[in-house]
Structure formats: structure tokens, C-alpha cells
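pinned: reference chain
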Amino acid sequence: MSARSALGVALGLLLVSGAAQVGAQPSVKMARIGIISAGADPSRPEPQWSAFVEVLRGLGYAEGRSIVIERRFAAGKSERLRGFAAELVRLNVDVIVVTGPPEVEAARGATTTIPIVTIEAPDLVARGLVASLARPGGNITGLTLGAPGAGEKYVELLREAVPSVTRMAVLITRQPAPGVLEEMRDKAKALNVALPAPTFLHGPDEFDAAVARAKRDGASGLIFPSAGVTDLHRRRLVGLAAKYRVPAIYTQRESVEAGGLMAYGPSLVDLHRRAAAFVDKILKGAKPADLPMEQPTKFDLLLNLRTAKALGVAFPATLVARADEVVR
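pinned: its C-alpha cells
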């Protein structure tokens, strides 16, 4: 082969090699986010989860392009949570996002190394899952549902809405955040309202009997703190309050949209948006142990005028004026 021919071959190989390098795409590792919730099937996403994905998108994470989201929803069957957690660990997700205490415990039982971001778990310090809100100290961080003063507002607002209420019943499916029941009792005492010990419900089969018993015992107002089971069956609880004609206050807007009289509680949409920011920090290298947990800062008051009319309740004008949303 002549020197000219050899040079031509060499140049040809160099050009082919360069073209191949130009055409090659760098491999990009997609972040994998796991979600565990005792709530409903994500085929009908609730606004809070849409907000979570929307914030991630705004932070530069496009689902299917730069992130994969593994969704695991138990639809009220809490016995499935541990299996979900084990499955996400096997998939080697980069972070696990959870909602309430059962989901946190399931995830924490499956891994002590994969970061866990909570959204609405009320009592992680009391449960020994984090050292403190300021310095969680392990692989769990995120948002806690509890906030000082929230408990007393349920009693205060229900009494303001229905001044004739002299006895309230608290129907609950899990222990609330520390201090909530104490705040309820203190406010009830200050307003001269009887407030017996809460009734713990273990499943929807107990709902009807519990509401009937509360009415029979003289309850003229009901309080339904938020929990996975009660949230999932909110329409049933709203229907029972209407059936027995007892004014009730809930903690989520969806209950009012389903026909409940009124609701007051942390904005779940806001909490889910803020949870996305935690995920972003972790994916960028932050350690959960060093990320202080945060409390709710936005609370929503919602009223349903149609339900009020059906129950013979006339909301004070001052209460209506303060409401974030009124269903007419």
C-alpha cells in the first residue's frame, strides 16, 4: 500500500470514528422515585399528587425522561404496605415518598439506607422514627401533619358554626399527632362543651354503629380527624352524618366536596408540593438526616352551604367571610 493510500485509509477511519462519537448519546441515569400510600388507586389521581408531579416537572424532572415514578397505592388495604415497601427496595429506588404513619413504618421496616420523605405523618418523634424535627438523624425526613393549635380549631370552628352544640364526639382510626386530643379537650372545657374520650374505629364496618352510638349518647357534633381509612371512605362518613343529622367537621376539602358540612386542616396540595422540594434536594445529594422536617403552614377552611341548609344550620356571616372556599 502506498503512503498516500495508507494516509487515506487512516483519515477514513478517523472520520468514521468521529462520526460514531458524535452520533452516540451519553447514557443518562433516570432517577427512580417510589410512592407508597394507603389511599386510592392512582388511575384517578387526587389534586395533591398532581401538584407533586407538577412541582417536580418545574424543577426539571420529566416523568419518563429523567425520572421514573413507581406508584404503589393500597386502596385502604394496609396489609399491602410492607409488600410495597419491599418491592420498591428491590427496585433500588433513589427515594421513597410516603404519606401517613403506617406507610412510614412499612418503608422504614424495609430499608434504613434509602431516603424516605414523609408528607403527612403526625408523630414520628413519639414513634421513635426520627430523633427530632430539627435533626431527624436517620433516613427519614419531610413534612409532619401536626401543628400546634390545630386540635383546638376543630372544636372552636364547629362550635362557632353551630352554637347549639354542647357535646362532641371524636371518631378516629389512628392516634393523632401528640397534643391534638389535649388541645381538643382544653378548648371544649373552655367552651363548656362535653368531649368524651375518642372512639377508635378499626374499619368501615364499624362506622355506622359508631355514629349511631354517638348520636344516642347525645352528641350534637362530630369531629373526624384525618386518617387513611376515614379519608378513603369519606363519602360513607359524610352520608352517615347526614343520615343521623349530626353536624360534623372534617380535615380535608374532599369531604366538603362530597357533601360534608365543613372542613379545616392543612392543605394537602401545599404539603405535596413541598414534599417534591425535599425529593429534589435528596436527588441532588442532600442527606435526610440533615434536612429538618417541616410543619404545615397553610390551612384551609371550607364550608358547604347546601349541607348547612339541609341540617338547618345557619353559618355566621363572619365565618363565611373567613372561609377559603364555600360550596353553594
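why pinned: The longest helix spans residues 3-23. Confidence is low (pLDDT under 50) at residues 6-27.
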